[in-house]
Amino acid sequence: MNRAFSRKKDKTWMHTPEALSKHYIPYNAKFLGSTEVEQPKGTEVVRDAVRKLKFARHIKKSEGQKTPKVELQISIYGVKILEPKTKEVQHNCQLHRISFCADDKTDKRIFTFICKDSESNKHLCYVFDSEKCAEEITLTIGQAFDLAYRKFLESGGKDVETRKQIAGLQKRIQELETENAELKNKVQDLENQLRITQVHPSPAGSVTPKSPSTDIFDMVPFSPISPQSSTSTRNGTQPPPVPSRSTEIKRDLFGAEPFDPFSCGAGDFPPDIQSKLDEMQEGFKMGLTLEGTVFCLDPLDSRC
């Protein structure tokens, strides 16, 4: 991590670890916007993004549009960009996806960071205008990344692995509950059908047994008293013999083996959880480049 924070390694962090681990640090700023960039880091990359967004902002300003204000919430989990009044989250940038963060030394109002989008996997550069806190926000993001990386190393990925196993078991339980509900419905339908097609008892003193009633498919209903009754159906065929139950493997009514939650292998885990773990490892290995550099082409209009 020394290479990632080489410029700031001799400077102490501004916040306590508990503030970033258990809570978040809020900042107010103006959001110039975000734009796609070709590289995950670099001064030239940031310079071009700032030029593009500042030009677009000047056009909007000429049309009477003001630069929107946002609230930044920085923690070890990421940087959230919220609407300050409604607290609606506009962007949620996970910390391990942020690869570059910089503030401008010639214009202390401007700071940026580059984050990899979770859906498109494109690198987006976010540009902000903060009147007094540009450098402090940059350092806070660096401190949050340092704490998150240390916590990841201390846990050895065990927290993520545990969540992966829990998610796999929860998914399996949900599938079994759905299957169980379907089986209950089938059993209920069979019971209702047996009630409807149940054989009525013969009148007292009658010698000839009454022909059993049949269902809608002209089939003789199941009789628990005489499972192998020789009574013919209406079409003259004999009912099929009742298969004997197997005592070797315990199975349910429909032949399915009972579920054993301790027999779930690693292959039952959802692939998206494993991809998230791999993504976090890749993101932390890439590190965060923290810079203070000159990338602003022209001073920002203070009237915005």
Number of strands: 8
N- and C-termini, Cα separation:
37 Å
Counting DSSP H or I runs of 4 or more residues, the number of helices is: 5
Order of helices and strands: HEHEEEEEEHHHE
Report the portion of residues in β strands.
15-25%
Ordered list of secondary-structure elements with their pairings:
Elements lengths: L16 H5 L3 E13 L5 H20 L6 E7 L2 E5 L6 E6 L3 E7 L5 E7 L6 E7 L4 H22 L2 H39 L74 H16 L2 E5 L11
Parallel strand pairs: 5-8
Antiparallel strand pairs: 1-2, 1-7, 2-3, 3-4, 5-6, 6-7
Descriptive notes:
The chain is an alpha+beta fold and 304 residues long. The chain is built from five helices and eight strands. Strands 4-3-2-1-7-6-5-8 form an eight-stranded mixed β-sheet, sandwiched between helices.
Tags for this model:
alpha+beta; 304 residues; 34% helix; disordered N terminus
Question: What's the quick description here?
Answer:
With 304 residues, this protein is an alpha+beta fold. It has helices spanning 17-21, 43-62, 134-155, 158-196, 271-286; strands at 25-37, 69-75, 78-82, 89-94, 98-104, 110-116, 123-129, 289-293.
